Amino acid sequence: MTQKHVVFFDTTLRDGEQSPGCSMTTQEKLTMAHALEDLGVDIIEAGFAMASEGDFAAIATITQAVRKPRIASLARAKTEDIEMAARALQFADRARIHVFLASSDLHLEYKLKMSRAEALETCGESVRLARSLADDVEFSPEDATRSDRDFLVEMVRVAVEAGATTINMPDTVGYTTPEEYAKMFRDVRERIPAIDAQGIVLSSHCHDDLGLAVANSLAAIDAGARQVECTINGIGERAGNASLEELAAALYVRHDRYGVDSSIKLDQLYPTSEVLGNLITFKPSPNKAVVGANAFAHESGIHQHGMLANPLCYEIMTPQLVGVARTHLVLGKHSGRAALRHRLEQLGFTLTRDELQHVYYRFVALADRKKNIYDQDLVGLLPDQIRERKQEPVAELD
Ligand SMILES: [Zn+2]
């Protein structure tokens, strides 16, 4: 793995699956895992082995059927959790045990009722145990962004010395900002030289409570993170995780800015989003970046005119790039003559300037009353003499 490669760690089946409306059966998780393999993700977090028998079964099933990505299980910093994760992963070609322990005083005091000293000891013991069971161990200081910085550094140092191969510093509650998150990564790298010296991978894990998950993840990459944790359609606890498709598209479209590569097959983004949308109870919102139904739809007349002249006027990537069949010019009250002419020509009607003007008035009047204008509505607007001239396309040219 080179410095230029960003590892995509998908947690749709763990963080995503544990959010409302997203639970999946083992069979459904397996379907999703195959889609993630086709998409090219490097690591699939398949579940939390200790959480339930269903999670354990899903992890074990996926390790036997999905071979390309590394398979991970989450585990609390407890002996029984770590041993259970190792058992669920025993048939994986390449396994990862992902151990987490809170590093913020708030979590230590109220949730875990543990002192800082006890937390450091537990961290070291857990990572050592995990390393005795797997050669690839990720450690996450939970709530890293709200932790005392000196203590966070101490805990990460203990995890590194105990043999962690990836250190993930999550913004568990979606609280941080890009500048602040980047600074945390720079601080930790600077204060623990072993991270860079031993090639330990730093990772981001961002929640979207303030709508900053993707921006924060990109900031972490800027500061040296080489793994991003994310989910399909951005599903996950509360407002969700960083969206995989947005991260992958941003790194591609702005390669000039970030200069890193990933193994994500961009043309599988939309198909994978569809697989998930059909398995859980909701689809991405229509205005969701990259994979929403309207992500490549243009309605306003000025935009449609520009799109027909040259798609680059209003699109920074083609829909085909991310696996969407084609740009959708929506005919509505904001559309102009250019889009109307274009659609009528596709339907086999070539109009003179005056005819187009006449039909356009009728079209605008209809669009004022009706939200969606369909092809049969358009044909209905045409005077008889135009309708009779319809030319059947002899052949379709691309
Ligand atoms: Zn999370």
- How far is the N terminus from the C terminus? 40 Å
The largest pleated sheet is described as: 8 strands, parallel, barrel
Please, what is the CATH homologous superfamily of the largest domain? Answer: Aldolase class I
- The amount of helix comes to 40-55%
Number of domains: 2
| Mean pLDDT metric | 94
The radius of gyration over CA amounts to: 26 Å
pLDDT < 50 runs, ≥5 residues:
none
Our count of helices gives: 18
Order of helices and strands: EHHEHEHEHHEHEHHEHEHHHEHEHHHH
| CATH class type of the largest domain | Alpha Beta
Query: Which small molecules are bound?
Result: zinc ion
Query: Strand-residue fraction?
Result: 5-15%
Class by alpha and beta content: alpha/beta
What overall geometry do the principal axes of the alpha carbons give?
elongated
For the biggest β-sheet, the strand order reads 1-2-3-4-5-6-7-8
Q: Let me know the number of strands.
A: 10
Query: Looking at CATH, which topology of the largest domain would you report?
Result: TIM Barrel
- In the CATH hierarchy, the architecture of the largest domain is Alpha-Beta Barrel
